Amino acid sequence: MVCVAKRSLKASAPQRKSTALRPLSNAHVLTSRNVLARVVEDLHLVEDTEFYDPNPGFSLPGLPGGETSGAKLAPEVIALRNLTQRVSAVADEKSFVATLMVSAETTDKAILISDALIRSFRAELASAEADGAARAAASLDERLEQLKRDVQIAEERVQTFRRQNNLAASGNGELVSTQTMNALNAQLVEAQARLIEAQANYDAIRADGANASPTGTSAATALANLRDKAGALQQEQRGHNVTVFTWNAEGPNRALLSSQVELVSLDMPIHGEGYGKPATLRGIARSARFFARHKPHAVFSAPEFANLVTMIALGLSRSHARFFPSFHAAADLPSEDFGAKLAVVLSKLVARRATKAIAVSQGIGRDLQARGFPRDRIAVINNPLPGPLEGDGTAKYSWPAELAAMGNSPMIVTAGRLVPVKDQAVLIEAFALLRARRLARLVIFGEGPLEANLRAQAERLAISDSVLLPGYVNDPAACYRDADLFVLSSIHQ
Q1: Interior angle at CA 14, CA 127 and CA 1, nearest 5
Q2: Is the separation of the CB atoms in 258 and 234 below 8 Å?
Q3: Helices and strands per DSSP (H, E), number in the chain
Q4: Most exposed among 82, 245, 350, 407, judged by the fewest C-beta atoms under 10 Å?
Q5: C-alpha to C-alpha distance for 305 and 342, rounded to whole angstroms
Q6: What CATH number labels 272-380?
């Protein structure tokens, strides 16, 4: 029995009708000629006398199942015909479950054929999804090209209107661009003067602060205000107004955001590792409105699927912003996530829109080049290393005390999100084998949906007194400082 569709209790009437049709369609696919032909080939059923007997005892020409006179069918066709007679699938509209029935000489053979049918069925669905993604990519490419043509026509009309209405120069004959440049220069001079004044005040208060009395609270407050003003003026002088735009800003790193950086969050709820397809479409539309309203000059994005939705949102908003997608994983690494697969298929569209792609390693840079990114538009910027520890570095965390309570045996450390791709479960299994032979401690830094499962696994293996899950720590140097061994158990990285 194979479950091929699950009913959502919150689905609308049209959605329930569409969902109800999926088991029927999947039941037809299960017994389709393509699926059965794959099974015949994968299991070599032409070599199984139950499905193809090269030396039959007798044949009844003209009767159902008998060969016609003068015509001999290929072994594969006979095996396929016999397999078709032994396989059936029935869809239950009420439970949304498709039931697969297979008959064979033995139970083991029936189970073997059933497993092969499921694998072939999944391969057929994957092929259909790939074809659909390719068609979507072609349609999207055509739409983007049309958007570019529309933008070009609009720009030409704007230039024509300016020429026809003599908008290229000001009333006194001075070019508008010259007036704008003069105004910008005046603002720059004023900002530099304010920066010098703030820096002088800051230096004076800092010099006085070394000899200040403990009651000098006002001086400390003034110093903090001057630091903020100096930072704002430096940013104004450079001309960079930075906004962090995210679909969901939850998490401990939010507290690390500089006060000089604006945060804009759509506050979209996360389900597992993503948002779901309907919410993703709404997120793209809201992102397009954000880009159209704020008109950014440059946009950075990461990781792979975020690059894709950012590219689509920029196209829908008709933004001319410079686009810098960042890539953190190679495309040839396996992934079962549909969004990641779609992002790879549509990476050529991202390459076409990108001003320059950012790769975090030389290997990923070569991978991007193989996927169609021009070599001169790829920049390799490695992830930064943590800075030196200030003081103890662990004073604000409780995990060092918990670790010390476990003793002083060798310390094994890993760090990462508690999700399937990081595979901390296999690390706990390996540690249990080690723990049976010698004393050791395992510390798994990070947070995620699998935390409860990992704790339960440690309890089941009777090693919970040697396994510590302290959660997220934003100072990796503090995590690694006392470790004797670092282990990376990720399926891919």
Answers
A1: 50
A2: no
A3: 15, 12
A4: 407
A5: 8
A6: 3.40.50.2000
